[in-house]
Amino acid sequence: MYRTKTCGELRASDVGQTETLAGWVQKNRRMGGMTFVDIRDRYGVTQLVFNQEINAPLCEKANKLGREYVIRVTGVVKERSNKNAHLPTGDIELIVSELTILNAAATPPFTVEDDTDGGDDLRMKYRYLDLRRNVVRSNLELRHKMTIEVRSYLDKQGFIEVETPVLISSTPEGARDFVVPSRMNPGQFYALPQSPQTFKQLLMVSGFDRYFQIVKCFRDEDLRADRQPEFTQIDCEMSFVEQDDVLNVFEGMSKHLFKTIRGIEIAEPFPRITWHEAMKYYGSDKPDIRFGMKLVELDDVLKGRGFPVFDNAGYIGGICVEGAADYTRKQLDVLTDFVKRPQIGAQGLVYARVEADGTVRSSVDKFYSQEVLQQMRATFAAQPGSLMLILSGQDATKTRKQLSELRLEMGNRQGLRNKNTFACLWVTDFPLFEWSEEDQRYYAMHHPFTSPKPEDIHLLDTDPGTVRANAYDMVINGVEVGGGSIRIHDSALQNKMFRLLGFTEEQAQAQFGFLMNAFTYGAPPHGGLAYGLDRWVSLFAGLDSIRDCIAFPKNNSGRDVMIDAPSVIEQSQLDELNLSITHVH
Amino acid sequence: MYRTKTCGELRASDVGQTETLAGWVQKNRRMGGMTFVDIRDRYGVTQLVFNQEINAPLCEKANKLGREYVIRVTGVVKERSNKNAHLPTGDIELIVSELTILNAAATPPFTVEDDTDGGDDLRMKYRYLDLRRNVVRSNLELRHKMTIEVRSYLDKQGFIEVETPVLISSTPEGARDFVVPSRMNPGQFYALPQSPQTFKQLLMVSGFDRYFQIVKCFRDEDLRADRQPEFTQIDCEMSFVEQDDVLNVFEGMSKHLFKTIRGIEIAEPFPRITWHEAMKYYGSDKPDIRFGMKLVELDDVLKGRGFPVFDNAGYIGGICVEGAADYTRKQLDVLTDFVKRPQIGAQGLVYARVEADGTVRSSVDKFYSQEVLQQMRATFAAQPGSLMLILSGQDATKTRKQLSELRLEMGNRQGLRNKNTFACLWVTDFPLFEWSEEDQRYYAMHHPFTSPKPEDIHLLDTDPGTVRANAYDMVINGVEVGGGSIRIHDSALQNKMFRLLGFTEEQAQAQFGFLMNAFTYGAPPHGGLAYGLDRWVSLFAGLDSIRDCIAFPKNNSGRDVMIDAPSVIEQSQLDELNLSITHVH
Fold first, then answer.
1. ipTM rounded to 2 decimals
2. What's this model's pTM, rounded to 2 decimal places?
3. Residues B297 and B345 placed together within one structural domain of the fold
4. How do residues B260-311 score in pLDDT, each as one tens digit?
5. Do A189 and B568 touch (CB under 8 A)?
6. Closest CB to A132 among B151, B207, B232
7. How far apart are CA B251 and CA A128, in angstroms?
8. Distance between the two ends of chain B, CA-based, in angstroms?
9. Are A429 and A519 members of one domain?
10. For position B72, which CATH number holds?
11. Number of CB pairs < 8 Å for A and B?
């Protein structure tokens, strides 16, 4: 028994008790003949007191304690004269009579404080010290709580968690697989799953009815800031359901999480908008609806008035920013630079303000009469004090995406994107296919198992680009936290999908034969979705990167710099696997 | 909305209601002008009734329903005249007025019944149909329930579930790693974890205090009947603990599982015996203590009496089987053959019976007087009607293991190993090292991070083979369901362990430098354990193989025969990974 209490537990009601604590030295300071040591563990911090006059050798031992030493102390709980209202243990201190050093500590390479002096690289190399910081550990505590609540909710709804295999087969469709050479089957490879998609569908064929799994998935992609080669999904599937059934169950789960994790009760149903509406009004399939500022189309108002940029555009649109009419010329120049950045790619920015008297003053006054400008103002329904920002371009989709970026930027500037405000919605009716100009073929927008809407099936042969899918995403604050679809459960339709996606009969059979075969033995209608756990935790924790809610993340080169993985392996391991390394750049 | 109720839900109280069900056709039979269809889903079976006289076309449609067709039906709930007490829905039937075929089904390759006609290979190839069988699915439901209860218990005890990485580094110590080539780091490989051992210890260094994780682990071993290349552990670690603290917490968890999953209240503490006692009294480090039949040493009684086999033996020992004195000569020959099998390797079997009058009759009567045989009987404390079975050999450990096998065999024959009786114990004080004759070196019996008992540390230099570890296993019914240890938390001692295990300073640094480094920054005393989830579920489900509690298991060649993994990958994938296949046998 190393301790009788944790470092976060003692209160005024414990005064007079003898207790033993164990933990890390957070601070050590001398004042007069006294030494005060803060001892820390996961549960809190307690002040220890050593008195030079009462026990000089013990006090001298305490004076030598360095930061992060691991100690055990026994003493009597005393009420503090100087109470600290910021600490749950702030009413008491421990008058130490015994001190054992359990382990010494070298001086850590950065301070173990919420506001540390350690840079990113250093903190990643010494991640085990970084994880001692309350701000980092609390993200992982939140993550734990979320998975507990997810499981609790789904279990109550009759879902069964089933573990699907990690060592599976490689499928070239989709992102790149990580592969695992098989020693027992020379020349053959397993692949790590990008998702348990086919297995969860097989479980529906097996009659499992309601399945879920919190599961690691893998993608060998060139990493962007917010991607990890291994990531965690809340993966779910249900049988005998239509789209509304899935949406209702998982809207319920989301509300449960908001309530239990963030203490937020959401009474109203989540708004549901179609993908077409999302693109039209927000220029994005994952709109942030914490604020309005919807995209407004201005072709009818602004075309054919002699301003060549607009007259020649395929699309003119804008947003109206309330209360931003006082933006200075300099601020507007910054916005113009913002939209002209290569990542956004607009040609320029037109702006117009509504003055206090209702007059509109724009950057294109010489082309437009006040009458036309007032028509524009009416289209925006812009109030005095508003700033209208207008972009144009050949391609409506591209220009809408530029407006979407501008909209988010203005949301930030106007303080409309508070991390503690949450706005959820469903985006539905995604297109079934995406056309790739580069490859001159269709790709599945979601994945090849997504069902087209029954009323659009007749378009598969004639106009596949217009076919809508029974697919949906859940979006919170502009982040796609999850997505899914109703699946195809008919082997003939599944076969047709594979052909439309350019699979030969043989390829489809080789890669997905087991699934299509399974469908011939009585597949129920089914559908589901998957949430990105890392993203959702980040959102609830108010983090900018998913990395801080992962205990041991990898960097942008896919390296774990703490353990130095990946690394070279021994020649004997390669030999056993019948592999050789061809060349290394 | 595909259904208003599941197929296991309707009761007499629902009579008169109109309800819609969806599921699979289990059975279809005609009687008189009626057709009776059993419709099945995960929740149960409901009898559907179609009447030729009332709706002939509907009844004919029903007549054509094949086994495993997926259907939806609507009808009125009616009380059955012929109730079926074996079915929860046996009081009612549904008089169908609407029938929709949601999906047809080819005739399954084996019957989807508890008692199927499908062989192992066929069931594995069509695992999605095998999983429809109640007996298989119920194992996975049990597995789900167990993980829910494990998490619930540990969460209440303050444990945090933390996900550790799957893509880590290869360490040659231990079993063989599966490796994953890194495309972004050419020539380098990740390894899949054999356990999250080092990461959970780092989490203790990070102050997480109480960690757990239900996690996939991987071992590239030649597979035995009860091994899978990927398996699941309940992995746990605690800080500021001694061995008793760990044992108490996890004994509590085990009792919680027995109570919630099997409805068994275990009031008494689990027995705790040392490894030395286990070997001495059971010849096994995982004794089945559902029955006694302890090993008895007979050297003092039987040596030096002129029976050359025993006189020359290094060890003589036996077991006493109550009520087995009536074993026939033929049965005893079978036992003799059993112990002489190469897997067991005894030279022969000596037996002796205690007759009703107390006389002992043995197979070695010509060497031993009745007086000596009575001495032996007293050593066994054998009652009339008992059979004593005796083995001898040069090596005590080997002979004890042979006796252990014989003991288990006799336990089976005497009906003492009931699958619904459970006997748990802790085996403690394992040796720290195992000597390998082949490699002429010591290996860690548990793993290199296990702490020696403080009182044995002085023996590390002089007599490492006798050093006992703070290591423990939890054994249920002769199955090692979990094991763990108190860890080394001192970098100097850890370094010493690596040297005793034959690591050079450089090798230790290269492979475990991050851990030893972490220990210098204030590592707390810590320890933990890991349970084999697959084994524990098998035990609770009364299965002979772990395979039946895994949704999609692999066969003994590490293949998933359903999806046909592993498989060849494309040359372009190999090229991207800078790999070539050297040769394939």
1. 0.95
2. 0.95
3. yes
4. 999 999 999 999 999 999 999 999 999 999 999 999 999 999 999 999 999 9
5. yes
6. B207
7. 29
8. 55
9. yes
10. 2.40.50.140
11. 360
